[in-house]
Design brief:
The complex is a heterodimer of chains A (about 600) and B (about 290). In chain A, about 35% of the residues lie in helices and about 20% in strands. Chain A is α+β, with helices and mostly antiparallel strands and about 600 residues long. In chain A, the strands form 7 sheets. Chain A has a 5-stranded mixed β-sheet with strand order 18-17-19-15-20. Chain A has a 4-stranded mixed β-sheet with strand order 1-12-9-8, covered by helices on one side. Chain A has a 4-stranded antiparallel β-sheet with strand order 4-5-7-6, with helices on one face. In chain A, about 45% of the residues are buried. Chain B has about 290 residues and is an all-alpha fold. Chain B starts with 6 loop residues before the first helix and ends in an 11-residue tail after the last helix. The chains are: A alpha+beta (about 600), B mainly alpha (about 290). Chains A and B meet through helix 8, helix 9, helix 15 and strand 18 of A and helix 10 of B.
């Protein structure tokens, strides 16, 4: 009797195997792909509310559906601003306080039940509403820092939104005016050299009031924008699908670019109507290996190079291995305008009040080993927040605490009042829930442990991670910041006191002198002057150690040659409306597999 | 006068003759010993120490090579024994008493109490255990403590069922009726009279539970909600998912899976043998037919 069970299970295993083999053989083969772009997302996306679009993954998703007044030119470098929803670049008054934008006519929001079947044109009032929404304290926007104290009357609006139960959006704000449907006048409290850049960021995306009112809390999951794509499917943690927005107005591929761009074929589609691709599929790969294997199978168009696959893909001279080049894969290497950092919650009683303790952390962290093991030497140590490529970066600037020296770490710990780590409480290190993040945190625990600092690790999903930081519920965590716009101010603001959580000052660092210098920096337009101020700020930053400084990265990207018109954009990635797929070539190459 | 052997003694003698079972028992004992030595700090393993370059191949110095941070993989595999055994042990310690008490009450009293307890365990067993574990791990926070609790409170259902069934069978027996007639209270009957007869079955089920707890820990650690900051087999296999394809580093994977394979196999063989000797009627062995 009992042997029967064994025989039965043997049969079922054999049958199962046959089915499995057959189904592997069937997948992909023979199926030809249409006009689809398949993009890997390395984390699940928080949602589509532009007022909360503070992380790069949200930004990439949001910009498919929503649009801003301005954008960066697809090809021109250094980065140049060009109009998107604006008809032309704004006129700025001589005192630098008044910006007058003329808006494009005939721009419609995508069809949505919230408009009750009517076509809905984008007008200046929508823009004013969207900015007020970021200012409304009840929105809990992470983007208030870009407007804070800068627009006339907006701070009062924010204050009132805090005091009243429902925010009165009809209340006029002096600095936000719409003299007619297609004109938007912005008045500042003081000149701000970054203001135009803000109008490329997710926070200033135009959202219709009807959608916010209609969907309420669910607005996060129901994007309604003017952009080239509509969200058509969202399986949380798995997949996002966007389809071409049939209402999209006539936008055209840029016709200007450098000689290099021309040679690279980036001007072949000049003047053609956008977007080229019908469907965008974002597949979520929290772990790096599935992403890599799927790329190698041709199941996604582009990928970064995970640390564990680096030696498989890249030769020691940083060129692409032949096996990959033969598969028609291209390698792009670009310096990123970014900084990685591990930060302390300065509002934590022990960490915030003891600079020697923080210095001990800095000395205990082996940055070179980190660069070797975690980045395959694709990074340089960061001595300040400002990355190379921006004003204020100084290759000779040395942060005395950006150094691995366990002996010094122990000394600092003694100075902090905890010789050998005695009486020191155990600290919590907040981490993400993928394997690489776990390895990273193991290294952290070990290196801190070596000097006598005890650490426990809590690992959570990316949305939860951001949530805890925005609510100051953490002690130590690690993060990276990519430039929102090509101005060093964007990095210095990461430590500006009033930008504390839920703003971008994740460390909740406050230093009056630093803040004053930052305010001075905002008003400065002269590059040399800026450099001088930034130098002073860096010195304060280095001495106070609110961060364990990390690295500035070099971005290595791979893409198949059937993806056309791809130009690296570090500041505002995700410009899929310009991309074109050589569908025949892709089908041919995939068939050959 | 020679005393005749009790059933248990007979079963144990029978078990002692089974060579495979004895080898399995020796392996289990060795694992337990290692776990105890590490737990009591008699064996102090340098699990966090860097002993070489990262990803060194297996050699005589490091028989399972090194991992990303140059730590000895063999040492980490051995440390994983302690994690796994402690999880198996504590889970069993939590689940078995719950299972026994609820199963005994349900089986013995029947009626409303039975209905209620059956309802509870049906509800528990209808929830996929991995989901329940994930939810619990998220509520309690991650770490080894949550794994103990999560596994402990989810894995009592099997034992509870078995015990309930046995109690239903035994409560009608003559000796129970006799005990009733002599005026023994229900608790005395449950724990002094019936339970000893059910114990062998509980042992068998507990040893199977031990195995499934070890496996569950590996799965939980693999998906990132298990043991944090310490080497466990699940964490090592999770590392391997990055290294195996990308770098061809097979030794973490090999070490962790072999260690797990051996203990799981040993437990399975041993609990089989245990069942055979205590309950010849359901034996796998033809000779006893």
């Amino acid at each position: 009797m009992n042997s029967g069970i064994l025989r039965y299970s043997t049969y079922s295993i054999i049958i199962g195997l046959i089915i499995a083999i057959l189904s592997i053989g069937c997948s992909q083969r023979g199926k030809s792909l249409g006009n689809v772009y398949r993009y890997p997302m390395v984390t699940r996306v928080k949602g589509f509310d532009p007022a909360l679009g503070d992380d790069i993954y949200s930004h990439i998703s949001i910009k498919q559906v929503y649009e801003t007044l301005l954008q960066y030119h697809h090809l021109k470098r250094p980065y140049e601003l060009v109009p998107l929803l604006a008809e032309s670049m704004p006129t700025i008054s001589e005192d630098g306080l008044t910006y007058t934008f003329t808006l494009k006519k005939g721009v419609y929001f995508q069809d949505d039940p919230c408009f009750k079947g009517e076509k809905r044109e984008f007008v200046a009032e929508d823009l004013i509403y969207s900015i007020k929404r970021v200012a409304d304290i009840k929105t809990k926007s992470t983007g208030w820092w870009i407007f804070d104290g800068r627009i006339r009357g907006l701070d009062e609006f924010r204050k009132e939104s805090q005091e009243s139960e429902t925010t009165d959006y009809t209340r006029t704000v002096e600095g936000l005016q719409a003299p007619d449907k297609y004109t938007f006048v912005l008045t500042l409290t003081q000149p701000c050299s970054q203001m135009l850049y803000f109008f490329t960021m997710s926070y200033t995306s135009v959202v219709p009031k009807e959608a916010v009112d209609h969907y309420g809390e669910e607005f996060l999951n129901h994007p309604v924008g003017t952009g080239p794509y509509k969200l058509s499917e969202w399986r949380k943690g798995l997949r996002l699908v966007f389809t071409k927005n049939p209402e999209y107005r006539k936008e055209h591929y840029p016709s200007e670019g450098s000689e290099e761009d021309k040679e690279a074929g980036l001007l072949d589609d000049a003047g053609k109507e956008l977007p080229f691709i019908d469907t965008l599929i974002f597949n979520v790969y929290v772990e790096s290996q599935p992403q890599w294997l799927n790329f190698m199978q041709g199941n996604i168009e582009v990928t970064g190079i995970p640390k564990d696959n680096y030696n498989q893909a890249i030769n020691p001279d940083k060129s692409l291995k032949n096996e990959l080049a033969d598969k028609e894969i291209n390698l792009n290497i670009n310096p990123s305008l970014d900084v990685t950092y591990t930060f302390f919650n300065m509002e934590d009683k022990t960490l915030g009040s003891n600079v020697h303790l923080r210095r001990a952390f800095c000395y205990a962290w082996d940055i070179d080993k980190n660069i070797k093991l975690m980045f395959n030497d694709r990074a340089i140590p960061a001595h300040s927040p400002v990355p190379p490529g921006l004003v204020g970066y100084d290759p000779d600037f040395v942060n005395p605490y950006q150094k691995f020296d366990p002996a010094l770490a122990k000394k600092e710990l003694e100075k902090a009042g905890f010789p050998g780590g005695k009486r020191l409480p155990t600290f919590e290190y907040l981490s993400n829930d993928n394997t690489t993040a776990r390895q990273w945190s193991e290294k952290f625990v070990k290196e801190m442990g070596d000097v006598g600092i005890k650490i426990t690790v809590t690992s959570v999903t990316w949305p939860e991670f951001l949530n805890r930081i925005k609510n100051k519920k953490f002690q130590i965590a690690g993060m990276a910041w990519s430039a929102d716009y090509p101005d060093p101010e964007n990095f210095m603001q990461l430590l500006y006191g009033p930008n504390e959580a839920p703003g971008t000052n994740n460390a909740n660092y406050k230093n009056a002198t630093y803040d004053k210098l930052y305010e001075e920096l905002l008003k400065t337009t002269d590059d040399e002057q800026k450099s001088l101020i930034i130098k002073k700020m860096k010195d304060i930053f280095a001495e106070d150690c609110p961060w364990i400084p990390g690295v500035h990265r070099l971005a290595f990207g791979l893409s198949y040659s059937w993806v056309k018109n791809r130009k690296y954009n570090d500041i505002s990635p995700g410009n899929f409306k310009y991309l074109r797929i050589d569908i025949d070539k892709r089908n041919e190459l995939l068939k050959g597999k | 006068m020679r005393k005749s052997k009790s059933l248990t003694q007979k079963a144990l003698t029978e078990l002692g003759r089974d060579k495979l079972a004895m080898i399995s028992f020796a392996i289990i004992a060795a694992y337990i010993l290692i776990a105890l030595l590490i737990q009591t700090n008699l064996l102090n393993l340098p699990i966090h120490d860097t002993v070489g370059e990262s990803y060194e191949k297996p050699s005589w110095a490091h028989i399972l090579g090194t991992d990303i941070f140059g730590r000895d993989v063999f040492i980490r595999v051995i440390y994983g024994v302690k994690i796994s055994m402690s999880i198996g042990f504590i889970t069993t310690l939590i689940a078995v008493p719950i299972g026994i008490v609820l199963g005994a009450l349900a089986g013995f009293f029947g009626g409303r109490i039975d209905d209620f307890i059956v309802w509870i365990y049906s509800t528990f067993s209808s929830i996929p255990y991995l989901l329940l574990l994930l939810a619990l791990a998220l509520v309690l926070g991650k770490g080894i403590f949550s794994v103990y609790i999560a596994l402990g409170v989810t894995s009592w259902v099997g034992i509870c069922r078995v015990v309930r069934g046995e109690f239903i069978k035994y409560r009608e027996r003559d000796y129970v009726t006799a005990a009733h007639a002599l005026g023994a209270g229900p608790l005395r009957i449950i724990f002094r009279h019936i339970l000893p007869n059910v114990l062998p079955l509980i042992f068998i089920n507990a040893s199977l539970l031990f195995v499934s707890a070890i496996k569950a820990e590996v799965i939980l650690s693999y998906i990132g909600v298990g043991v944090q900051g310490k080497p466990s087999w699940g964490n090592m296999i999770s590392d391997a998912k990055l290294e195996l394809v990308g770098r061809g580093v097979y030794w973490q994977f090999l070490g962790a899976t072999c260690a797990m394979f051996i203990i799981v196999l040993a437990f399975n063989i041993f609990s089989d043998a245990l069942r055979d000797s205590f309950d010849p009627r359901i034996s796998n062995k033809t000779k006893e037919r």
